[in-house]
Design brief:
Layout (H helix, E strand, L loop, with lengths): L1 H22 L8 H13 L3 H19 L1 H20 L9 H21 L7 H11 L4 H20 L1 H23 L3
Helix pairs in contact: 1-4, 1-5, 2-3, 2-7, 3-4, 5-8, 6-7, 7-8
Length: 186
């Protein structure tokens, strides 16, 4: 129980740091629900954390039906991630875009992977990836990367080619680190 709570807190904090510290300064995207929330943030100036939670409600509802243990971990993860994203919004680092893409992806991937390892999640598409990994041979990192790339393509219209290219680097990095944290070095 203590390990799960720690995973939610640390994973959520890492996501808040990765997103605000590295992605937001360059208008880069994470994938999944948080990526959609970032698109809304960049285009309409909506709070990314709040919108990531609101957009996750249907996925959390699905977890309620299919896997109550995952639901409980995800509802807390969703809330804490939303809080940390909005709470840490003022903290941004001014690094080159390529370095921000890599570091932001690594930090976000570690946060997501840590949460998934302890059967928690942000309630976003990483929750979908968790369910996919349980019933298919696709590993969780690859599932996250595929869904996240689709979200980045949606962002192309709003953010342009440069953001899509560096956001793709972010997402691939995040997928690798999430998989390592979730499965270990196998």
């Amino acid at each position: 129980m203590f390990a799960r709570i720690a995973a939610v807190l640390i994973g959520s904090m890492l996501l808040g740091v990765g997103i605000n510290g590295f992605l937001v300064p360059h208008h880069l995207l994470d994938g999944g629900i948080i990526g959609l929330a970032l698109i809304l943030h960049y285009y309409f100036d909506f709070q990314a954390g709040l919108w990531s939670a609101l957009l996750s409600v249907p996925l959390i509802s699905y977890a309620w039906v299919k896997d109550r243990a995952q639901f409980h971990g995800s509802i807390y993860g969703m809330i804490m991630t939303a809080v940390f994203i909005d709470l840490l919004a003022p903290f941004q680092f001014q690094l080159p875009i390529w370095l921000s893409a890599i570091l932001g992806g690594a930090i976000c991937g570690i946060g997501v992977g840590l949460m998934l390892r302890y059967e928690t999640s942000t309630g976003g598409t990483d929750l979908i990836a968790y369910f996919i990994a349980k019933v298919t041979p696709l590993n969780i990192g690859l599932s996250i990367a595929i869904m996240d790339c689709l979200i980045v393509l949606i962002g192309y219209q709003t953010l342009g080619l440069k953001s899509v290219v560096f956001s793709s680097i972010t997402i691939l990095t995040a997928g690798v680190f999430a998989n390592i944290c979730y499965e270990g070095f196998k």
